[in-house]
Amino acid sequence: MTVDAAKIIAVAKAEIGYHEGRSNGHWNNDQKYSKAVPGMAWSNFQAWCCTFVSWCAMQAGASDLYPRTASCLTAVGWFRAKGRFSQYPAVGAQIFFGPGGGSHTGLVVDYDDTYVYTVEGNTNDSGSAEGDGVYAKKHLRRDAHVYGYGYPAFLGGIKSADPKYAKEAPKPSPSKPAPSKPAPSKPKPTPKPVVDLSNVVAAAKADPGAAQGHTTHPADVKIVEAALKAEGLLKASYAADGSFGSLTVAAYKAWQRKCGFTGSDADGIPGKTSLEKLGVKHGFTVKA
């Protein structure tokens, strides 16, 4: 299991407010930590600040990263033997106080340029020499009472103020790329209207001789009329009645001539070639 400073810090912070037992009007060092750490039950009723750190390490799955001992001096020696002792604070480090680091200990949860922030067992918030529980504490970094720091070898590195450990600084987790937005769907092209050649031919032959306003295939004829109007060959007033009357025939004849047809090929009756050319230019298809 990969263990980082955050795990043991979370364990330690959860214990803030815990108090040892009392007897005869005094705190008596009877606490739960010694009995819960294998091989440490004998240390109950004794100073338990170092035992508390061992318990936190065990709870966080980091027993091999911190010394298991009730002695602060032994813990300092353990870190020194591994070459992981520093005068600079680090997040998750074990802090030691007093001559040789043997007076007291706790866990560093954070630091800044001025202070070290810790969680410590067997201490108090009154300044008394008699500890009674687990507290969050703050110490000046340059306080003469601070002896130094033991650095656990977290697999992911350690955040430290020591320049020698800069290479161990935890790498920031890569940010997840923002989910890509789906490409906007292209609007479906509007289907082109279809003109039936046989319908407009029939209308061109029937409508001119019929009564005014007669229509044979008005839907097809209106499309052709609109195209002839766009070409400037048919007046707007006749371009939407759906009747392929004499004026529409004359307009279509003019279109055929624009296409290069002459004689009987330019008689105003739509043919496939001329109608398809008109459709390509003005947006409709021809059904032959």
Automatic annotation (TrEMBL):
Q: Region annotation Disordered: residue ranges?
A: 165-194
The record, for Pfam families, names: CHAP, PG_binding_1
Species of origin reads Streptomyces nigrescens
Give the Peptidoglycan binding-like domain ranges. Answer: 219-278
Peptidase C51 domain boundaries: 46-122
InterPro entries, per the entry: CHAP_dom, Papain-like_cys_pep_sf, Peptidoglycan-bd-like, PGBD-like_sf, PGBDSf
This protein is called CHAP domain-containing protein
Where are the compositionally biased (Pro residues) regions? Answer: 171-192
Coiled-coil zones? none
